[in-house]
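Quick one, probably user error.
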């Protein structure tokens, strides 16, 4: 019996391409959840070709809400992240001061 030959992601660090392309992927998404929820400062010190870019792209997909990429992985079973962004009103400065509109 021969195993179906799948592709190894040797030339890409794109989490999206790996997941959508059916390539082999070692599931380290539980660590992504821990980094996002339990860490304050992280220093990634690893040799070249050790997966730093892949980890950061996986984290970006997670924080960006790309849930479909995580189906069947450990992170899919974890509580969802809540990301809250604040944007200052464009008519006001960051501290409530009023700015006149440009050109007028």
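Nope, works fine. Designed sequence:
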């Amino acid at each position: 019996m021969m195993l179906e030959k799948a592709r190894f992601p040797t030339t890409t660090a794109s989490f999206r391409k790996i997941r959508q392309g059916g390539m082999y992927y070692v599931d380290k998404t539980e660590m992504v959840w821990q980094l996002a929820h339990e860490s304050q400062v992280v220093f990634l010190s690893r040799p070249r070709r050790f997966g730093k870019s892949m980890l950061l792209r996986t984290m970006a997909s997670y924080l960006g809400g790309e849930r479909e990429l995580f189906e069947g992985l450990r992170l899919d079973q974890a509580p969802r992240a809540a990301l809250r962004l604040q944007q200052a009103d464009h008519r006001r400065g960051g501290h409530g001061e009023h700015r006149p509109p440009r050109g007028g």
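Residues 52-63 form the longest helix (12 residues).
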